[in-house]
Amino acid sequence: MTVETSAPHDVIRVLLQRAATGSVPGSRTDGCRVALAIEGGGMRGTVSGGMALALHELGLVTSFDAVYGASAGAINGAWLLSSNPDLLRRWADPTFADTLIRTGNLMRGRPIVDVETLVEVVYQTVSPLDFASVLANPVEFHPLATDVATGESTDLRPLVRDEADLRLAMRASAALPLLAGPAVQLGGRRFYDAGVSESVPFRMALAQGATHVLVLRSRRHTDTARPSRLAPLIARTALRRHTVAFREAFLGRAARLAADDELLAGYDLGAGDPAVMSIRPDAASPRVGRLARDGQVLAAALEAGGAAVHATFAAVRREA
């Protein structure tokens, strides 16, 4: 009796082939453009951070041509392309969460999600991120954000000229409306969190020519998108000074995420071009809220993300 095994998804095949041949950015011969797209979602970035760390542990980072990140996914992308990606483990450190999530600031009229302090202080003094190494990495870094004027998803890479711009781009990508303070200014424009317009940054990667995209999802399969009951009220009040386009983008978040889920599920079947594959945490892994701070939950989330990536590639290697 012959046991048939399904061929690996083409995204996995190309990544492993590149790793096996020692292919590096700038000297490819396979004609492919392979992108990594990292979902964020506040402290759910702990999950995709664990996934990114696992890709580093597997030695697959140089198999990508570009990394696209949305919100906390952009922060993960920067760490992954830095000289010390092992510090992605800091997501599981409750002191890290306490620095970023400051619920007490609500009574003081200050940002609840303090991305500015995280990037401008913690990442320069407490847990230094080598920003220069991110800029020098031959794997392109594409942090996304939402243009306040148009409500459209925007690739900030063309606006990043130096380390200061890179820090602004990271802050802009994770600048949650209402929760993280005012919009971030970069290149004469104002930006809010990428999740307003593109929370799963695979569409931008495809629009810019990617033939293969590996998508790191921070949500489990069971985490479905539901429209916020407060969103219309927020759009009419707190966001009333913003453009109609931005408010419409804000109100359309759940519908876009549902559409993304449906499209990505089809891509996962591996049929046709482009080749897009998603990795999600196990359904039994803990649910991680956007403002989660519990150390045990965060540690489990980081582990679940890493386990999902390791399991995906281990399964392919066993079949081979």
UniProtKB/TrEMBL annotation:
<keyword id="KW-0442">Lipid degradation</keyword>
<dbReference type="GO" id="GO:0016787">
    <property type="term" value="F:hydrolase activity"/>
</dbReference>
<dbReference type="InterPro" id="IPR050301">
    <property type="entry name" value="NTE"/>
</dbReference>
<protein>
    <submittedName>
        <fullName>Patatin family protein</fullName>
    </submittedName>
</protein>
<keyword id="KW-0443">Lipid metabolism</keyword>
<feature type="short sequence motif" description="GXSXG">
    <location>
        <begin position="69"/>
        <end position="73"/>
    </location>
</feature>
<feature type="active site" description="Nucleophile">
    <location>
        <position position="71"/>
    </location>
</feature>
<feature type="active site" description="Proton acceptor">
    <location>
        <position position="193"/>
    </location>
</feature>
<dbReference type="InterPro" id="IPR002641">
    <property type="entry name" value="PNPLA_dom"/>
</dbReference>
<dbReference type="InterPro" id="IPR016035">
    <property type="entry name" value="Acyl_Trfase/lysoPLipase"/>
</dbReference>
<dbReference type="GO" id="GO:0016042">
    <property type="term" value="P:lipid catabolic process"/>
</dbReference>
<dbReference type="Pfam" id="PF01734">
    <property type="entry name" value="Patatin"/>
</dbReference>
<keyword id="KW-0378">Hydrolase</keyword>
<feature type="short sequence motif" description="GXGXXG">
    <location>
        <begin position="40"/>
        <end position="45"/>
    </location>
</feature>
<feature type="domain" description="PNPLA">
    <location>
        <begin position="36"/>
        <end position="206"/>
    </location>
</feature>
